[in-house]
């Protein structure tokens, strides 16, 4: 893995655990020589992640839409800040640049980004791993809902298992490295079950 795309909040959230996890991941990526691709902001968890990676000597690529850049939240310390026209262009470029995807705690934007790349993986558009960094159980209820989606037969269990889950940065990276994409039909009732 050369680069990992991280989706996470532009707010810091309620718990200090979230910022600590962002800092740990940024530091771990840099120490392992893995580049960071993220949304390019200087605020919230996004800023904490980028600052930690930079402080540890890491390669950081930010991708930010012009409209957000103009609100002055872009990280001014990035040597590689790519400015795009829209959120759609942002997601496409981040996906192109990355070898894997990780979601830390965040809001609806974080969820939307994660679900889009996971859907692309389910459809076979890419074979890159997707993961949740489940800090302090932040994603426990979401994972419960995803298990319900499987139980109700709207998703195969093998596709649910495509979403890796870890609660510390070292374990997360080990899971990303060992990931192998399943090769099964998306549609239940068409092919193997």
Structure, described:
This protein has a 7-stranded parallel sheet with strand order 4-3-2-1-5-6-7, with helices on both faces. α1 (16-31) runs parallel beside α2. It is globular. The protein contains 8 helices and 7 strands; from the N terminus they run βαβαβαβαβαβααβα. α3 (66-69) links the parallel β3 and β4 (80-84). It has 193 residues and is an alpha/beta fold.
Map the helices and strands:
Blueprint: E1 3-7, H1 16-31, E2 35-38, H2 44-55, E3 60-65, H3 66-69, E4 80-84, H4 87-97, E5 100-103, H5 108-122, E6 130-133, H6 140-151, H7 157-160, E7 163-166, H8 169-178
Parallel strand pairs: 1-2, 1-5, 2-3, 3-4, 5-6, 6-7
Helix pairs in contact: 1-2
């Amino acid at each position: 893995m050369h680069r990992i795309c991280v989706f996470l909040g532009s707010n810091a959230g309620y718990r200090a655990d979230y910022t600590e996890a962002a800092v740990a991941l940024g530091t771990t990526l840099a120490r392992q020589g893995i580049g960071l691709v993220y949304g390019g902001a200087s605020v919230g968890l996004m800023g904490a992640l980028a600052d930690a990676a930079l402080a540890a000597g890491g390669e950081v690529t930010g991708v930010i839409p012009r409209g957000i850049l103009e609100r002055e939240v872009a990280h001014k310390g990035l040597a590689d800040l790519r400015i795009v026209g829209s959120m759609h262009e942002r997601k496409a470029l981040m996906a192109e640049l990355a070898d894997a995807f990780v979601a830390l705690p965040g809001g609806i934007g974080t969820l939307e980004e994660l679900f889009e790349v996971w859907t692309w993986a389910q459809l076979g558009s890419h074979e890159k791993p997707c993961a949740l960094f489940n800090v302090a159980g932040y994603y426990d209820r979401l994972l419960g809902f995803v298990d319900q989606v499987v139980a109700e037969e709207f998703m195969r269990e093998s596709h649910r298992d495509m979403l890796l889950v870890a609660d510390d940065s070292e374990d997360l990276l080990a899971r990303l490295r060992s990931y192998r994409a399943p090769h099964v039909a998306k549609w239940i009732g068409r092919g193997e079950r």
